[in-house]
What we know:
With 137 residues, this protein is mostly helical. It has helices at residues 18-31, 40-58, 65-83, 88-112, 122-136.
Amino acid sequence: MKDRQASLLDDLPPDLTELSRAVELQRRAARVGFDWNQLAPVVAKIREELVELEMEINGAGEPGRKQDELGDLLFAVANLARKLEIDPEQALRGTNRKFRRRFGIVETELAKRGKRPEDACLEEMDAIWDHAKKYES
């Protein structure tokens, strides 16, 4: 059997998260011209992948197709982060902190009302969330 030729995509650090790995794979492919020069096609690809995921969600596709389509969507979003020169890990970390903070406000406000989140309806929690979001702005 013939030895496989080394790939530009070989030798990625093993400790990369999958999100960072997606960015690095795309960065390496871009070095040889496998990349869009504009943002518009990247955003269009995200829309395309979202439509494909929605089709799988609404259809009776093969098991595992939803996971594949979600992976494709995340890969496309990682590419947008790369093109915008934004570290997607840092962006997601910030959003996670923001979510925790806002959900904490939801929990605190519900507690003032003598409720726990599991005792409240989505509409009530959403109203508190929206208020917390406006307060932060």
